Amino acid sequence: MSSAVKSGALVSLQELQPSSPFFKQGASLRVTGKLQEYSVETAIAIVIDGSANLKINTEHLRDLTFQAGSIYQFIGELLIEPNNEAILQARVGRNVDGIDLNLYHQSLQLVRQFQADHINDQAA
């Protein structure tokens, strides 16, 4: 078994539903959202994007200041609890204030379309 760190797959918070292929125990993901709240005691951040939200465990992050309303991007592994609640165990986090989330979502859709086309081309 390889111990190499996997790259975080780009996903929007809206895609992290139990029916999603990204909603897997231990999946390595990259998520972006606006910080709704942060608890210093538990090191749990809640990020939102539209109507979707996700808990982020930030206990392994250093030198990152959290400010409600700012936009953050996290890379980490998804932990799914028995009640189907997901928590991202963040290994990397950064403030990305200034990012245009609408443009980010559009580019994410284009990347997915390109990847799907590329896979289809290889299969043909």
Describe this structure in words.
This protein is α/β, with parallel strands linked by helices and 124 residues long. The chain is 19% helix and 37% strand. It has 1 helix and 6 strands, in the order ββββββα. The protein has one helix at residues 101-123, and strands spanning 9-10, 28-39, 44-49, 52-57, 71-80, 86-95. The chain has a 5-stranded mixed β-barrel with strand order 2-3-4-6-5. The chain is globular, with a radius of gyration of 15 Å. The termini are far apart. The relative contact order is 0.18. The mean pLDDT is 90.
Task: Put the structure in a nutshell.
With about 120 residues, this protein is an alpha/beta fold. The protein has one helix and six strands, in the order E-E-E-E-E-E-H.
The global form is: globular
How many beta-strand elements?
A: 6
How far the N terminus sits from the C terminus, by CA atoms, comes to 32 Å
Number of helices: 1
Rg value = 15 Å
Order of helices and strands: EEEEEEH
Strand order of the largest sheet: 2-3-4-6-5
Question: Average pLDDT across residues?
Answer: 90
* Strand coverage percent: 35-45%
The class by helix and strand makeup works out as alpha/beta
Q: How helical, in percent, are the residues?
A: 10-25%
Biggest β-sheet description: 5 strands, mixed, barrel
Oligomerization state of this entry?
A: single chain
Question: Uncertain runs with pLDDT below 50, 5 residues or more?
Answer: none
Secondary structure topology:
Layout (H helix, E strand, L loop, with lengths): L8 E2 L17 E12 L4 E6 L2 E6 L13 E10 L5 E10 L5 H23 L1
Parallel strand pairs: 1-2, 4-6
Antiparallel strand pairs: 2-3, 2-5, 3-4, 5-6
